Task: structure prediction
Amino acid sequence: MSVEILKTMILAMVADEATDYQEVELINSYRIQYPPLKDVPAKTIKSEIERVIVLKQNGIDDSFMVEDIGKNLSKPERLTAFALASEVCASNFNVSDEEINFLILLKQKWDIPKTVVESVFTSLNLRYGIPKTKDRI
Result:
């Protein structure tokens, strides 16, 4: 479970093809402090980042990777992964169109309820000043 959530966070980090230091720091912070990720070694994170980058460079669609990850997560874990991916996208105080598209993909593929999406974006608005994007997601 923890590696699958990590993979989702990494996909969020590279969704806009620009890795911001805030995104890297957030993932590292969660790896150190978030109980399900505490046991994931730094070298696993590095290898997963490299794997995702290679898959994307080889033209593997995010949709395929999201479906693959989703198969290994329970419904509550998918909700957690969606929330953490959203957090990664917002960590630089901006959510790009590419990141919104990635979050929409997660929402659709994993059947994330509208109430969860609204709650997550309310939280992002309060903490990062990210506007609620009803018409975007």
In short: The mean pLDDT is 90. DSSP finds seven helices and no strands in the chain. The radius of gyration is 14 Å.
